[in-house]
Design brief:
It holds the Pfam family DUF3103. Keywords: Signal. It comes from Pseudoalteromonas luteoviolacea DSM 6061. InterPro entries: DUF3103. Residues 1-23 form the signal peptide. By secondary structure, the chain is of the alpha+beta class. It has 2 domains: 2-183, no CATH class; 185-394, no CATH class. 35% of the residues lie in helices and 23% in strands. It is built from 11 helices and 14 strands. It has helices at residues 2-16, 20-28, 36-42, 53-65, 68-78, 94-110, 130-135, 185-208, 311-327, 332-335, 339-354, and strands at 84-86, 121-125, 141-144, 155-159, 165-169, 178-183, 226-236, 250-257, 264-271, 285-289, 297-304, 361-370, 375-379, 385-394. The strands form 3 sheets. A 6-stranded mixed sheet has the order 1-2-6-3-4-5. It has a 4-stranded antiparallel sheet with strand order 10-7-14-13, with no helix packed on it. Strands 9-8-11-12 form a 4-stranded antiparallel sheet. Helix 8 packs parallel to helix 9 (311-327). The longest helix is centred in the middle third of the chain and has 24 residues, at 185-208. 38% of the residues are buried.
Length: 397
Amino acid sequence: MNRLLKFAALNSVLMLASTTAFASQLEQSSRANISTHTELQSIDRFNTQNMQVADIKRVVAKTVAAQLSAKQANWLNRLDSANKLSFAELDLPTASAQLSVQASEQTRQLKGLSSDGQNVYQLRLADDAMLSQWENGQVPLVAFAPRGEDTQWIHVEAFDANGELHLLDAQQMPTRPVLVVELDKQLVHREGVEVMRKVFNQGRERIASGGFQSSSEFGVQQAAPISTSVISRIRLNDDKEPWISGAAEVYAVVNGVSPTRDEPALDVVDLPYLDHDGQDYTPNQILIHWERYRWQAADVLLMEHDDNTNYQELASTFLNIVTQVMRLIPDPNVQGYAIIPQLTNELIKAMPSHWFTNDDDYVDVFYTLFENRQYNNLMGASNNAKMTLSPLTIEPR
């Protein structure tokens, strides 16, 4: 207990100390060999232009690992059915708890989310099979997903209770228990999708201005039936996630052209159930509202959430790209719905060159879907997603 009190006291002093020199050191290094205490007192001084979520998670992971000796029995008892713990359940010492709050706030800023809300971090047991190992006395390591493109990861850094660094194989599940410091994907994904919808809705409002329908009236007639297409079944061959990243969080971007003007129309649809590859899902979820798209045609782009996406910038980038492409087409009606794949291809081409590495991963794309068409076991263009899409007309009350 004395050791823990000393640790907490030391952290408190360091959090209040002058940090100018340490901050400069952090900005100029890879952060791989910086002491925990330097990182603790300098997290709010990162150069935000160079910082990624992985940098914050490294600090948090080392801090959490320092509490393993004192807290692991309590954490083991508090695991939920998914073997996860919110940071509120970790019962961290004051200085470490303050750090986790600060890390959450900084991460929210990086991801373009509201500054308010619950802590975005959680602790997850990397694999369910590790639970018995932990219960039998094997002390876990604390790991985090590294920087860079996940397909190129070789090692995953993990800390033990003594602060020693271990390098784990990025592609093979570890043979000892590992706790992963990660974003609460469901929370972040849900908030991020709402941010994207807000940006897209603002784009629709701009499109609808100047004598056209207002956004509240856009394509909706209360007395008329509503034509939609519903996901009856969907499956992924590869969810693009290594073991350290856990379950996927997939969403769809529906891309087409406004029925009222020569402007793009974008929607985002959350697919929160689509979290593992090699499994069929039957959500009966509405994917496309056809009154929003000219020619009754649209493309669907599937994306998977990763850590470094700023949802505000992502949605704005999508909207700006398709808007610029539309402006280069003299008369869209001449080409008709053939222009829609052109818009989608520009979005796909922009991904590796315009955004951070390990941003939202491209999963697959479905080109030129039509209204009132039944698609059974339709494969995406990249042969990664398979979907059955069924027409559904919703009658007004």
